[in-house]
Amino acid sequence: MAKVRIYQLAKELGMENQELLELLSQMGVSYKSHASTLEEKDAEAVRELVREQRGLQEKLAEEERRKSLPKRPPVVVIMGHVDHGKTTLLDYLRKSRIAEKEAGGITQHVGAFEVKTPGGTVVFIDTPGHEAFTSIRQRGARVADIAVIVIAADDGIMPQTDEAIAHAKAAGAKMIFAINKMDLPQADPERVKRQLMERGFVPEEYGGEAIVVPISAKTGKGVDDLLEMILLLAELEDLRADPEAEPRGVILESRLDKQAGILVNMLVQEGTFRVGDYVVAGEAYGRIRAMTDADGNQRKEAGPGSAVQVLGFQELPQAGEVVEWVPDLEAAKEIAEERKEARRAQEEEAQARRPRTMADLLKAMQEEGKKEVNLILRADTQGSLEAIQHILAKESTEEVKINVLLAQVGAPTESDILLAQTAHAAILAFGVTPPGSVKKTAEQKGVLLKTFRIIYDLIDEVRAMVKGQKEPQYKEEVLGRAEVRAIFRLPGGKQVAGCMVTQGRILRNAEVRVLRKGQEIWKGKMASLKRFKEDVREVAQGYECGIGLEGFDDFQEGDIIEAFQMVEVPA
Ligand code: GDP
Q1: What CA–CA distance (Å, rounded) separates 468 from 463?
Q2: What percent of the chain has pLDDT over 90?
Q3: The ligand 1 atom nearest the CA atom of 82
Q4: Atom of ligand 1 nearest to the CA of 180
Q5: Which residues contact ligand 1 via a Cβ below 6 A?
Q6: CA–CA gap between residue 308 and residue 322 (Å, rounded)
Q7: pLDDT per position as a tens digit, 493-551
Q8: What domains sit in the chain, N to C, each tagged with a CATH number?
Q9: Residue 126 marked in a binding site
């Protein structure tokens, strides 16, 4: 067994000898004091421990730092069924806010507005529809911290209420239920609460955690309570942002104006944007020429929680894209260009990997380590919808749980596709025909959308998927091999093997094993695959590359890294 000198290990870990010796005695590691060496396996244990401790320290320091940052206002989105009062509530909030300012003040639509209360400020997203909300979440930027789900007290929970709840859940936003139209004589808030309980949301007054506030968007009664609950919930979330951090925002809306050109409404999430800054948002870039806030003021800078209209984008960015700060125009152009390339490649890949059957979809979920498949159901009548749900409820097994995200009467919509894409769900429609445009979108986005004429065909399809899953037959297919020629250690201890691909090709996403003298000594996933510092997706025979593995750092020269994939054996 190889020996490691103590002073060398101390140097490697950036510690004093004495410090290391103390650690060794704490760990109960025996070392030969006369030779000042220790066993390689003990040295590795020390490295491991030091890495762990340092990781923990960094995490604590980061948390500590976060706590010292200034608070930021909560960002709220209002969702719910059509005609339940979303617009009226937004109007009321907007007006109460304007009333506080001097009369006649000009306001500017910037996609969000602030309401200042004695208890704090709340930012309301003011973009039409909640479709934007899903697309926002898809790009990984959580815009809204809180979703207010508006439910009319005279109408109760309706299909789009359920849809709104599903969207808010998928986006990871906290929810507050506002029971609206309380001024109407036929208002029945107790019925709404029962409906909420049926869905697993138990109001606080009944010992649950669901926040329910009765309001009238028309008279304004209860709206102060709503604001108070929003601020209370925000307080619990401890929302903070760093005005000094590298600026980051999110596009709320964008449009082309005949006179003004490209108009972009942006919400700042971190840091501070300044006029003159270069920015990239998805595939669009530009330089901020001017910023206008909701009060119509020209702003030189905009910090966390501010919504502003930005002039200066060269192309139309999409709602939901993250806005990043870049140092100069070159960088901006380059990043935007790279993203265009990456998107094209991704689209091709998505097209190729598009799930064609329920089994494909399930496989994709299982690859992510999930034992469930998400469904969106559509049917011609409430009766058939309930029949389908009733039967499907009994089809879940240990291996596969069937999760119905949304079950609705009527043809599939664009919104269903967004939800399906976000939640990796399949859309199964019975007795209804999706419009051609919806079919096309499903295809483009790689969403599985199937229509059935007979209920039992639908059930059979699901059943077959569940059954077929019990004994999947896979075999291994070797893709290529690479030989380790040199070993590098990164700061932090991670090893990277300098390799030559000697056979086939090495794919970044493939599974790999390490062979030493013909014996498998490790199997797992790659942490990195690079050529000249560039991350690459594949390296072909005859080329050199750097390979890092997830959780393996014991390379020796001459090791063979074998890349393989599991292919399904057709039954
Ligand atoms: P949205 O589709 O959710 O945006 O709903 P709207 O805000 O457009 O409201 C639909 C209808 O309900 C309108 O006629 C509103 O005037 C009415 N409405 C909204 N809130 C209230 C309320 O609190 N009380 C009463 N009586 N009517 C309301």
Answers
A1: 8
A2: 45
A3: 2
A4: 23
A5: 80, 82-88, 180-181, 183-184, 216-218
A6: 14
A7: 889 999 999 999 999 989 999 999 888 899 999 999 998 888 999 999 999 999 999 98
A8: 3-68 (1.10.10.2480), 75-237 (3.40.50.300), 248-341 (2.40.30.10), 370-469 (3.40.50.10050), 473-569 (2.40.30.10)
A9: yes
> Which ranges constitute the DSSP H helices of 219-294?
223-237
* 551 phi and psi angles, rounded to 5 deg: 90, 15
Which mutation among 158, 218, 223 tests ligand 1's pocket best, with the greatest number of atoms within 8 A of CB?
218
Counting every residue, how long is the chain? Answer: 571
Question: Each residue of 376-405: pLDDT tens digit?
Answer: 999 998 888 988 888 888 888 877 888 898
Would you say 258 is a known binding-site residue? no
Mutate to test the pocket of ligand 1, among 88, 125, 151 (most ligand atoms within 8 A of CB): 88
Q: How far apart are CA 309 and CA 251, in angstroms?
A: 10
What spacing in Å lies between the alpha carbon of 83 and ligand 1's midpoint?
A: 6
Determine if residue 169 is labeled as part of a ligand binding site.
no
Helix pair angle (455-468, 382-392), 10° resolution: 20
Q: HSE (CB half, 13 Å, CA atoms) of 371?
A: 7
Distance 149 CA to ligand 1 centre (A): 14
How many angstroms is it from 88 CA to the middle of ligand 1? 5
Q: How far is ligand 1, taken at its centre, from the CA of residue 177, in Å?
A: 16
* Burial class of residue 102 in the structure, from the number of CB atoms within 10 Å of its CB (0-12 exposed, 13-18 middle, 19+ buried): exposed
pLDDT at 471: 46
Dihedral angle computed from the Cα positions of residues 392, 397, 400 and 406, in that order, rounded to the nearest 10 degrees: 30
pTM of the model: 0.62
What's the gap in Å between 183 CA and the centre of ligand 1? 11
Atom of ligand 1 nearest to the CA of 217: 23
> ∠ at Cα 160 (154, 162), nearest 5°?
95
CA 222 to ligand 1 center in whole angstroms? 15
Give residue-wise pLDDT tens across range 230-251.
999 999 988 999 999 999 999 9
pLDDT band at 136 (very low <50, low <70, confident <90, very high): low
- State how far the Cα of 405 lies from the Cα of 423, in Å rounded to an integer: 9
